[in-house]
Write a structure and sequence with these properties.
The chain is built from four helices and six strands. By secondary structure, the chain is α/β, with parallel strands linked by helices. A six-stranded mixed beta sheet has the order 2-5-1-6-3-4. Helix 3 links the parallel strand 3 and strand 4. Helix 2 packs parallel to helix 3. It is globular and about 45 Å long. The relative contact order is 0.31.
């Protein structure tokens, strides 16, 4: 047990986040997403929403500041302009943690499945809202350069 660490951040999840390097991609997906089919490590987080898990992850996970869209979401019904309530809340949550993030990528559903194959790992939640699938690009911890 660790003090000050969100209890949703299990040992397996913390280890995975720590092992990721700059530019690695983490998938956060809903209960309907075929997580095992990605062929990547899957961490199951039960009894919580994708927003709760994301809030916990972003408390320790730096987003990539070297790219324009370090967060991407699954496209809704083949319409890149359409956004679900969960996706909208996700965008707000990300901006609360990292206000410099201004752009969010939108990935068509079939392309999202293809991208999953190159991800570092998948966090599989019990989120019930459809299209609650996202990719986070890991950044670097800012260390002063002398």
């Amino acid at each position: 047990m660790l003090k000050g660490i969100n209890p949703l951040l299990s040992g397996d999840l913390l280890r995975t986040l720590d092992q990721m390097g700059h530019g690695d991609q983490l998938l956060l997906v809903d209960r309907n997403y075929p997580a095992i089919a990605s062929g990547k490590q899957v961490i199951h987080i039960a009894q919580t929403s994708i927003l709760d898990v994301t809030n916990a992850i972003l408390s320790v996970f730096p987003l990539d500041t070297f790219i324009s869209a370090p967060v991407e979401r699954m496209e809704v019904e083949d319409d890149p302009q359409k956004i679900t309530k969960v996706q909208e809340s996700f965008v707000e949550l990300v901006r609360d943690h990292q206000p410099t993030v201004t752009e969010f990528g939108v990935i068509p559903r079939s392309a999202f499945y293809q991208r999953a194959r190159s991800a570092f790992a998948v966090v599989h939640t019990l989120e019930t809202a459809p299209y609650s699938c996202f990719i986070l690009h890991k950044g670097v911890v800012n260390v002063p350069v002398n």
